[in-house]
What we know:
The complex is a heterodimer.
Chain A: H1 15-22, H2 28-31, E1 35-39, H3 43-55, E2 58-62, E3 80-81, H4 93-103, H5 110-130, E4 155-156, H6 162-180, E5 183-186, E6 189-197, E7 200-208, E8 214-218, E9 221-224, H7 245-252, E10 257-258, E11 263-269, E12 292-296, H8 299-306, E13 320-321, H9 323-327, H10 337-349, E14 361-364, H11 366-372, H12 374-392, E15 401-410, E16 413-414, E17 427-429, H13 447-468, H14 480-497, H15 505-520, H16 526-546, H17 558-582, H18 606-609, E18 611-616, E19 625-630
Parallel strand pairs in A: 1-2, 1-9, 2-5, 9-17
Antiparallel strand pairs in A: 3-4, 6-7, 7-8, 10-16, 10-18, 11-15, 12-13, 12-14, 14-15, 18-19
Helix pairs in contact in A: 3-6, 3-13, 4-5, 5-13, 11-12, 15-16, 15-17, 16-17
Chain B: E1 8-16, E2 25-34, H1 40-53, E3 76-77, E4 80-81, E5 105-109, E6 118-120, E7 123-124, H2 127-134, H3 156-166, H4 173-177, H5 184-196, H6 204-217, H7 228-232, H8 240-254
Parallel strand pairs in B: 1-5
Antiparallel strand pairs in B: 1-2, 3-4, 3-5, 6-7
Helix pairs in contact in B: 2-6, 3-5, 5-6, 5-8, 6-8
Amino acid sequence: MSLDSKIPEGALADKWTNHKFNLKLVNPANKRKYDIIVVGTGLAGASAAASFGELGYNVKAFCYQDSARRAHSIAAQGGINAAKNYKNDGDSVFRLFYDTIKGGDYRSREANVYRLAEVSNAIIDQCVAQGVPFARDYGGLLDNRSFGGAQVSRTFYAKGQTGQQLLLGAYSALSRQIKSGKVKLYTRNEMLDLVLVDGKARGIITRNLITGKIERHSAHSVVLGTGGYGNVFFLSTNAMGCNGTAIWRAYKKGAQFGNPCFTQIHPTCIPVHGTQQSKLTLMSESLRNDGRVWVPKTVETAQKLQKGQIKPTDIAEEDRDYYLERIYPSFGNLVPRDVASRNAKNMCDAGKGVNETGLAVFLDFKTAIARDGEDAIRAKYGNLFQMYEKITDDNPYKTPMMIYPAIHYTMGGLWVDYNLMTTIPGLYAIGECNFSDHGGNRLGASALMQGLADGYFVIPYTIGDYLAKTPYDKVPTSHPAFDEAEQVVTGRINTLLNSKGDKTPDEYHKELGLIMWEYCGMARNAEGLTKAKGMIQKLRKEFWEGVKLIGVNEEMNMTLEKALRVADFLELGELMVDDAFARTESCGGHFREESQTEEGEALRKDDEFAFVSSWEYQGEGKPAKLNKEELVFENVKLTQRSYK
Amino acid sequence: MSSNHKGLNFTLKVWRQKNAQAKGEFKEYPVSNVSPDSSFLEMLDIMNEDLLHKGEDPVYFDHDCREGICGMCSLFINGRPHGPGEEITVCQLHMREFNSQDGGTITIEPWRAAAFPVIKDLVVDRGAFDRIQQAGGYVSINTGGVPDANAIPISKEVADKAMDAATCIGCGACVAACKNASAMLFVSAKVSQFSLLPQGQAEKKRRVLAMVDQMDTEGFGACTNTGACEAECPKGISLENIARMNRDYLAASLSQEH
Lengths: 644, 258
């Protein structure tokens, strides 16, 4: 299948404006004739569903949680970027665009990223108008901070709870539409398949998580805003329920999957404490503004720490290796996430890890506290220090924090064109579940920006163009395509419920996670990836023969819910491994060990790999087909990222 | 992160209820070798994996982000919403807090309130909160066509106060803590956020009347200013908000223009 990105003609700065003019409009009186399904109610899904309702479409929105307000966007801490230049420090739409392209290691589409930067300002205006309580300065104007190593202060924030406040803003807009009757919200409902009629997305099959009822929903278009698939690693910073089922079902119906191996690994997470761990907790990246990262200079000292024979405060200044400051003198502790993560791994691989497990490095505030005083540090990071202490029982004002990288965000996702439409007509993917804007590495404070850009300011326009060309006729849910999709779903459920094995879905999930982390995590190589592929295939076979389930479909059954998700992760994980294997360059969050500079830094190969990997499903048991969307850079010059 | 603690053992006294119609009862389950660094929810995971291996139905409880922000976890532990500890959700509660009670019994119940019917075991339906929000907990503006964000200056003090109110995670601990199962802390936090900000002024009166009316319709009890809600709120939402809502409500009730 050929990939048409539908990037508009013309100068970069005019593309979106011209494109909006060229998009067909739906007459206001006709909008009520169209039904749209939105799956997921996070920043992308809720903002899209609310905007569709405001425009006059009939919307059905779905989420697996008990309320739209609980989507995992709520957990984002740091902030949201916009090119307002309120600080007069030289920011501009072009600079935000440029930083995002460069930060993504030149593996995203210029036109999409420019549009993202362009609409970023409207997002801030929109959220403020909704009553989102962003931080203010004493003059009553919005405050900004520098974030994630950006050279300008372009990040808007609401304490350490920016994601929460932006989501609650979108949720309030959604609530207003629910009240008006334009949006019908289905909570505790999970999408289990996509329904195609004449090759177009025309509906979904859902399972009601309370009653087990399998339901059919028909519409003129389906929009997926289901978030990322980072839980394929089992341990991640994602919420426990985040899953890849909706996008994976769409993939198997013909939606291509872009850059599946691009996973962001976040350097500042609380380390794993043991085998009972279910979840990792991220500490805001803002901590690196004042914290200094170090490990002991010698393995012997590190071992004493690991055994609890000495305390971190016993280690003299000259015996500490502030390795980021040493290796990257100009960026120091503020190097980008991929660089910080990889170097932490290198230190631990060299035996200098500082946790009992040997898998952690220190993030030390001693210097900052001595310089600015404890009160100043408390004012900036108090809630984060408190959270750290609650979880670890350690006081970071007295002893250095321990951090370790963790899976955080997936930059890969369903391939979409400039209109955010997948390769299935009428099926859209927005927010984290599409591949489009972050390339190989997502910059800080840009996930919230993308979710809301897609939901508030892109898809409300682009979907109209599709609907304007779509007849009003509704597909009845009695259509054979619905019968067929429902049968597949009930077939899977029955097979799982009849399985008589002795290993629980969580046990399979943990095993998959360990394989993915070991061989497709912070660093990958051909040998490991080949091994991982075999291991995943074997594990998948065992899963279908031997997963242990209990209960029936017709009631709340969380073991079944998990099993259905794990079944899809077991397939998605293999595609991630395939993609990582095919990309024999290092790029952003993808560090291929065979491709590094003499100094051990990531080596990109622009001549061979300046493309989007787009994988096309070829049928059960057949290898997926790799299609390439060549990336054309007309406005930025590809340079090697250097932070020395 | 700690050191070489031995695993802890507990007896859990858990509320089991098949569905909304069924009669519930307490059942006891042992759970052993729990790391003191495990969260309370991870301890329940261990219990549930054991139950599943024995062929028994796991205990259902709500949880999602496990970072203290989504508001989904909702357990009443040893007589307190979200268990022991100040300003904490269950996912942030760690088993080391129970260290001194090794071998003891921990009682786990669902939120108990007529407006939060039990769905199964420890899972309750908090849809009432969403319906209260839908009654008016928003600023009525459409996407696009809004003024520049800095066109509405808001003093830092006011913005901070609005933020404090907006911090509510909608978990329902306030209702669970209240002897009358009143939802005043939740509703007043929502009302206060918008009532403090200039953006919320146009609909201020209609909003407070509609939200309070919906709160009553949902069957939440009356507020008697006991303050248990504030004491147990995981986000430290202040009773001040209730006072503010009462003032707004009175003013709106007396006003002829809604």
